[in-house]
Amino acid sequence: MSWIVTAVVFWLAMWTLNVRLAKGEQTRFVKILVPTLFGVTLLVLWESFVRGFSISPILLPPPSAIAARFVSSLPTLWEDFVQTFIKGALSGYVIGCSAAFLTAIAVDRSDFLKRGLLPIGNFVAALPIIGMAPILVMWFGFDWQSKSAVVVIMVFFPMLVNTVAGLSAKDAIQTDLMNTYGASYWQSLFKLGLPAAMPFIFNGLKICTTLALIGAIVAEFFGSPIRGMGFRISTEVGRLALDMVWAEITVAALAGSAFYGTMALIEKAVTFWHPSQRN
Amino acid sequence: MNETVISAKNLSLTFQTNDGPVHALKDINLDINKGDFVSFIGPSGCGKTTFLRCMADLEAPTGGSITVNGMSAAEARMKRAYGYVFQAAGLYPWRTIGGNIRLPLEIMGYDKAEQAKRVANVLELVELAGFEKKFPWQLSGGMQQRASIARALAFDADILLMDEPFGALDEIVRDHLNEQLLKLWARTEKTIGFVTHSIPEAVFLSTRIVVMSPRPGRIADVIESTLPRDRTLDIRESQEFIDIAHRVREGLRAGHAYD
Ligand SMILES: Nc1ncnc2c1ncn2[C@@H]1O[C@H](COP(=O)(O)OP(=O)(O)O)[C@@H](O)[C@H]1O
Ligand SMILES: [Mg+2]
């Protein structure tokens, strides 16, 4: 019972503190402190309730057990991370996004492609592409290449649709200006089309970080060598080692946030001029 | 000195819209000579912007013809015959003020040193020296408009087309820029096409005033100014000035009676 009481007292204390902080002056420190306290509270509640109600570690292991497992399995986690994130997700992300970017430029130039390819793109983007994973594993083998292929297909159309939208974001006067200068197509593209498209392009790049990670992990459920985050999750669930499953989920969450955060930082530097980024 | 620079013959432009055809311009005939300062004045919707855009090959006429420097408007555009100042500044927000003015120079292939020299020159001219490194959104609307004028002046085009460039500015700034523009015109001997709403502005600046009337857009009157080319703001108190302004006003009224 004492675990539950501790939990409730801690929760109330943190809540009061956070409400105070949120009302007070919003310094940089406070802005980081508030969500941190929130996260810590969540972990403490989790730990206390699991212990207080004696919940089976198979249903939900306490955070302390997950942390212990995380630390003791670092080499395995790292190996899985390299296999799934670096080899599978990142390579697919780079290939898929670059291909979509180049295709978008072609689409923007050709009315035929715009009317033919884009509706197909919207259709394909709405399909549950992950259903293709078993087929791609058959085509490209068990190793990371097939995971990369799944990721390429998953990120391609969202990136394409966003970039095409971005390339038509320039306004009429800005385009007229280029015409009055007698600018060539490429001059116009590099000095107007692409800069104006950047907010949309980064929107696509950010959405695709999440898709890439999901694609690479889930594709491993359909066959993989004996390493990788998705492989580990599916086999450890079978062995009821849920603390390891959660440790992998932690890695995925950290990698996903870092990936998204990196793109958001680059976006801030590139599109500093956009009203949504100015402060 | 009477060399024709822009020549419109039976120029017509009809926009096909969802509400049926709009006759923005109908049978316009006009010759603009080298070194002229021609103002276009008329109620809104009478086709002033459309006419200017036809000269710039930003709009394709549906009838008649227009030549610029003896070429088609399209050829003249590719030869960078004119600078165009739009009603809105249209600066690129990802470029600094200096970067925006440098844009046409980069496209036209001026070398780096020349670019820097010209940017500094035109910034001086529109009194924005010191703002080169600022971004457009850090400047007031009036300053942005001045930057857009500087951008059109940075390269050597002997025609300058301006669409209500001072429309959004207050009276004092406007007077000042009008004087600056006249000085610039005298110094560079550019041919200027200038759209305005304001009768005093048109009379003060122009050697010729083209009064237009709407639906369909056509020329109601062309008034040759008798004012000397070299003028200062106080000329606006002279009888001659008042007489010309009166004639413009009459022209505008007659145009309206068409409806
Ligand atoms: N792109 C366009 N499409 C359809 N109608 C237009 C377009 N541009 C201008 N018009 C119409 O043409 C007429 C003349 O417009 P405009 O040249 O802008 O007039 P002004 O500059 O004298 O106010 C107006 O009736 C306007 O609505
Ligand atoms: Mg207009």
Let me know the largest β-sheet of chain A: none
Overall 3D form of chain B: globular
CATH architecture verdict of the largest domain in chain B: 3-Layer(aba) Sandwich
Q: Find the structural class of chain B using helix and strand composition.
A: alpha/beta
Sheet having the most strands of chain B: 6 strands, mixed
* Quaternary structure annotation: heterodimer
Helix content of chain B: 25-40%
- Show the largest interface: A-B, 21 and 23 residues
Number of domains of chain B: 2
For the record, what is the CATH homologous superfamily label of the largest domain in chain A?
MetI-like
Radius of gyration of chain B, taken over Cα atoms and rounded to an integer in Å: 18 Å
H and E order of chain A = HHHHHHHHHHH
Q: What is the 3D form of chain A?
A: flat
Number of helices of chain B: 8
The radius of gyration over CA of chain A amounts to: 24 Å
**Residues in helix, % of chain A:** over 70%
Decide which structural class fits the backbone of chain A. Answer: mainly alpha
Characterization of the model:
The complex is a heterodimer of chains A (279) and B (259). Helix content of chain A is 80%, strand content 0%. Chain A has 279 residues and is mainly α. In chain A, helix 3 packs across helix 11, helix 4 packs antiparallel against helix 5 and helix 9 packs antiparallel against helix 11. The longest helix of chain A has 36 residues. Chain A is flat. Chain B has 259 residues and is α/β, with parallel strands linked by helices. The N and C termini of chain B lie far apart (39 Å). The model of chain B has no long low-confidence stretch (mean pLDDT 89). Chains A and B meet through helix 8 and helix 9 of A and strand 6 and helix 3 of B. The site of magnesium ion has 2 residues of chain B, from helix 1.
SSE order and pairing:
The complex is a heterodimer of chains A (279) and B (259).
Chain A: H1 2-23, H2 28-52, H3 63-72, H4 74-109, H5 111-126, H6 133-140, H7 144-167, H8 172-180, H9 185-219, H10 229-238, H11 242-270
Helix pairs in contact in A: 1-2, 3-11, 4-5, 4-7, 4-9, 5-7, 6-7, 7-9, 9-11, 10-11
Chain B: E1 4-17, E2 20-33, E3 37-41, H1 48-55, E4 63-68, E5 71-72, H2 73-78, E6 82-85, H3 97-107, H4 112-125, H5 141-153, E7 159-163, H6 171-188, E8 191-196, H7 199-205, E9 208-213, E10 218-224, H8 239-256
Parallel strand pairs in B: 3-8, 3-9, 6-7, 7-8
Antiparallel strand pairs in B: 1-2, 1-4, 4-5, 9-10
Helix pairs in contact in B: 3-4, 3-5, 4-5, 7-8
The structure holds adenosine-5'-diphosphate (ADP) and magnesium ion (MG).
Adenosine-5'-diphosphate binds at residues 15, 17, 22, 24, 42, 44-50, 217 of chain B.
